[in-house]
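Question:
Now give any protein.
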Amino acid sequence: MQEFAKQSATRSRAEFESDKALAVQVKIFEEVRLTMQNAKSYIKSGLDTMALKETLKEIRDDYKVAADGVFVHKGTAQTYRNLTATKKIINELIGEAREKKNRLDARQKDLNGYRFRLDSLLTTAELFKFPKDSLELMDYLHSLVTVAKEIEPVDTGLKLASRNVQLLLNDYNSEINQLKLSIDEIERDEQKMAVATLQREFPNIGDKPGYYRPFEQILSFSRIKGILTLEFYTLNNIGKLLSLFGLTVLSFIYLRSLKHIYTAKRLLTKDYEGQLVIRYPLLSALLLVISIFQFIFISPPFILNFIFWIISCICLTLIFRGYITRYWMSVWLLMVVFFFLAAVDNMVLQASRIERWFMFLVSILGILSGIVILFQKRHHELKEKWIAYSIAFMVILELGAAGMNIFGRYNVSKTLFIGGFLNVVVAILFLWVVRFINEGLVLAFDVYTVQDKKLFYLNFGRVGARAPFLLYVFLVLGWIILVGHNFPLFEYLSQPLLGFLSKSRTIGDYSFSINSLFLFFAIMTISVIVSKVVSFFASDEHLTMSKDKAQKKQRLGSWVLLVRIFILSTGLFLAIAASGIPMDRITIIIGALGVGIGFGLQTLVNNLVSGLIIAFEKPVNVGDIVDVDGQGGTMKSIGFRSSVITTWDGADLVMPNGDLLNSHLMNWTLAGNRKRVALVIGVAYDTDLEKCRQLLREILEAEERISKTPAPVVQFEQFGASSIDIKIYFWTKHMSENNPTRSDLLISINQAFKANQIQVPFPQQEVYLHTDKKDDKEI
């Protein structure tokens, strides 16, 4: 019996293991078929290898264009502008190649993943546990053969796709490595050029050249390289260009509104003295935005800067027309022409004898023009005196450019050549930009005589005829950056600073860089400014030109708080993501805030939550006429923590949102801006009351500002001490007309009562003194 029991247990265990293996085998077969189906679909979805090959071909063609003059057709020496343009193109090509390479890596990873999944399923140990029963064994072997036949074409397709991807990936890796080696070679040349700035590169300008290349070829490949760099940079910075356009539109709207205000108040002067910024709002907006925000473009190609500067020059020229003297207008146009010639020459990327003579002649003309301008001694006519210093500096730089050009120092000569004329143009542009900013603030002071939230609490009373010193500091820094970009040494010296800013630093488990901190605060600052600009354009009554637009602006103003919350919240999350702050640190901060809220921030949180309730439920909107605990006025703004009510006395009442919700709030605007008026009048006791009633009704019906529905009511209230009291109830069409209507009614009623001999008695008393006759005699 014991032996039988052991055999039964062994047989049962074997059957259990067999059933278990069978269940695993069925599951594996299902997973294999599902994986094969997914793999087939993935292979069919495919990767457009033809497009990737075409892109690789374009990258190689663009590299050939970029290499011209640097790696092939080098000439006697390298030029800084050619190295810079080539480096920008190759960096863009590396970025494009890396993007395609990442796609190929992801594709290869997925293909290998399917192969690994199939291999791991087919090597499972349970698949090799064969049934002992012959019939079951035959069925199982048949299933294995079927699965093997199904897997074979899929595995072949995966191998072929993986091989094709790998070949293409190898091509891209090879091309990226080649591009990186080219960048390294260019950087070595730039470093040598920066260290040996004054080293001779070419023979003297009058000597025979050592290398000759047709000038037409130089112009052709320079034009192609310039267009290529501009195309690449524009595609990669389309968002910044759209932001520039948006800022221009907002600035134009603001300046146009200022001009409308000054036109309506007849404050514009004929010569626009002190008001030049609003002479042409669109041109001023373009000039201001381009000059200030061109610095958001990191290391732009020279041709893009040239476009920005030419647009700014055209705008300032049109604004100058008829404002500055004819002499200084001619000087400005001459400087623009010199700058245009120098900038066009700066886009020529390889040296030639023709270009060197052109540079020399223009430098000499610039020197002579500058000396004549300085010795004319008409500086007193200048609106900005610093312009004379920039012209003197131009003369010095052009003297250096001409001398270096003569003795074969081509790169430094070209740098001084473009730097001299660029310094004058940028200085004039920036000086007038600062002047326009100051003019805009002064003009705004005439409109907004008090500090206001929507104007960022600027104290316009402190703005004078001269711009603040800080603006001139920024002007000088911008001038140094724009002019310095043309010097190889500037780029060489700026690298350590950029490395210091981008270096990763660690505090505990958190790694950060100074760049990431700047980025965080920059995004948050932009978010705050954008939210305030939205608030300004939603609440500024000067931008409203009609009653319908005013009503729309009030309805829009009621949503301003929600829009600002959305902008700030989005800015916060973008700043956190861009700066790389880990989310677990944010949860710690939120936890700490929760503790602070529990202990001491209940009032602040109550006000913030009340602000959200007001924003969503809208018991009151911006522009509504309200009464809060007996204090009446107009709702000026609804903020995060508090709201502002402009009282009828002209003061701004700042009320926390929590108090606003908890107080007895009467919103007259929700009731249609209507309020019943009561007027009490007393008449003499001998008055004909019916006649008086009829007279009052006629007066009320004749007043157009009184609403006919509901009709006004005339009631006799009581017998007073000296008169019969009459109470008049009426509704005006708008509550803003209540007081003027009441005043005019009193005048009309007084005139009508006098014409009909109806007296309005005044309180009077008769005093009787009772005395004895004896006392009278003594007196």
In short: Residues 94 and 443 are 50 Å apart (CA to CA). Residues 215-502 form one domain. The first helix runs from residue 2 to 45. Confidence is low (pLDDT under 50) at residues 449-465, 541-555.
